[in-house]
Automatic annotation (TrEMBL):
It is found in: Cell junction, Tight junction; Cell membrane. Belongs to the claudin family. The keyword Nucleotide-binding does not apply. One of its GO terms (cellular component) is bicellular tight junction. Claudins function as major constituents of the tight junction complexes that regulate the permeability of epithelia. This is Claudin. It is a multi-pass membrane protein. Keywords: Cell junction, Cell membrane, Membrane, Signal, Tight junction, Transmembrane, Transmembrane helix. The keyword Signal applies. One of its GO terms (molecular function) is structural molecule activity. Residues 1-20 form the signal peptide. The chain crosses the membrane at residues 84-105, 117-139, 163-186. PROSITE patterns: CLAUDIN.
Length: 219
């Protein structure tokens, strides 16, 4: 029962991780630049994401421009696009597989099949967490290095946006969920290896008595 509850807790964490991963991938605020002019009416907030760049004006207007050209983008943005999409796909596969492999569900067949499915789903979550952690770390490093560069003007410097923090948290959730699923299945298999089922040996006294009885019949 404790293992089933732990798996259910890991599944909830994985759901939050999947939703956060998809949200971070689509959000346009991976880095934010707040440029305030001389008049409060001209204050704008520029946001840059993986797929589009948006500008929010203090008047309430909001405009976005899609990044159509892939080759013109920096390498870290291209890598972030690829790894975040892979993270979303792997985490979605992990949700489907662990739904079959969890103890609290009636899918997946016998206990060995459910254990293998649970372990495979945990591996998917771990890989999804790694794929989500790499681009957010790389993107944050580029923002910090650009912010500390003295040759770049103040108006062109950016700070990490909400999508980066969402990506970090989602990657952590996926990693924790994957580790829980893998270790829970490993403990169950390890227990089967350490304590193998006992074989029952029945005494052969009855056979010996029958054999003796048959020999006496022939005397």
């Amino acid at each position: 029962m404790a293992s089933a509850s732990l798996q259910f807790f890991a599944f909830i964490l994985a759901l939050f991780g999947v939703f956060g991963d998809i949200t971070a991938t689509l959000l346009p605020n991976w880095k934010v630049n707040a440029d305030v002019g001389s008049n409060i009416i001209t204050a704008i907030t520029q946001m840059q994401g993986l797929w589009m760049d948006c500008t929010w004006y203090s008047t309430g207007m909001f405009s976005c421009t899609l990044k159509y050209s892939v080759l013109s983008l920096p390498v870290y943005i291209q890598a972030a696009r690829t790894t975040m999409v892979l993270s979303c796909i792997l985490s979605a596969f992990g949700i489907c597989i662990t739904t079959v492999g969890m103890k609290c569900t009636k899918l997946g067949g016998d206990s060995d099949s459910k254990s293998h499915a649970c372990f495979a789903g945990g591996v998917c979550f771990v890989l999804a967490g790694i794929f989500g952690l790499v681009p957010t770390s790389w993107y944050t490093r580029e923002i910090i290095s650009s912010f500390l560069d003295q040759t770049i003007p103040e108006s062109s410097k950016h700070e990490p946006g909400g999508a980066v923090y969402t990506g970090f948290i989602s990657a952590g959730f996926l990693l924790i969920a994957g580790v829980i699923f893998c270790t829970s299945c490993f403990k169950r298999q390890q227990g089967a290896w350490i304590y193998p089922p006992k074989e029952h040996h029945f005494p052969s006294t009855e056979q010996e008595s029958n054999a003796g009885y048959n020999l006496k019949d022939y005397v």
